[in-house]
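W.,

You were right to be curious about this one. When I first looked at the sequence I had no strong expectations either way, so I just let the prediction run and decided to look at it fresh. Below is the sequence, 245 residues in total, followed by the output.
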Amino acid sequence: MAHTDLAKAEASAIKGEIARVAAFVGIAIFVVLLALILAFVGTSLFVAEWLLGSIGWGVLHGVLLLVSIAVACGLAAVGVSGARIGRAFLVAVGVVVGVSLLLSLALPNRLYTSIGASVLPGVEPGVRPLVVGAAIWAVIGLVGGLIGALRASGAGVRIGALIGGVVLGALIGAVTAIDTGPQVGIGIGIAVGYLTWIGLMGADIARTGVDTDALKARFYPKQTIETSKETLAWLQSKMPPGSGS
């Protein structure tokens, strides 16, 4: 009886020590994760303030980066190859470089100003690039919306595609008409790059779909089942007639 009580007491003490160690390990892991999150957020805000002039870019770019990674991981989980995700990323990098250069050098603003001076001489010079840019891109958006409407089904979807194309085009024209300067231009370019990466990955999976058969095969122990069937058939062949079915 005394030995039993002693064993119970020691087991209880050991359980207490295990719980104590587990609690401290859990706290340590939580603190490390918190430190990593703090380092990521702090670095993002610091770099944005240092290079782009505003911590707001750090918040926006950080959110878009995490969303991009989440989308990429989700696609990889359902069987999308890394090459396809990588190609979308490379295109997005090219978009970042292109948009950043265009806006940093104010090339669209200069183009709209030149066109406006020839086409709209009566409009105030200060708003002339905005009017020209919004008009040009609204027409481009209308064409894109028309193409989308022709491919869509349903009157509501078609009307939405047309209106959405015009509104999106006008917004793009308005943004590109601004002489942003290098910092804001690069900030917009990076944001557009993230959105491009997300959009391309989404368009890829929407176009090709998910290979459900391949996805099912990854979680189906086909070789084990086939081997088991072969083993069972071999055992049945070795059994004397009438000893089993």
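Here's what jumped out at me. Residues 49 and 184 are 11 Å apart (CA to CA). And, maybe more interesting for your project: The chain has nine helices and no strands.

Coffee later to discuss?

I.
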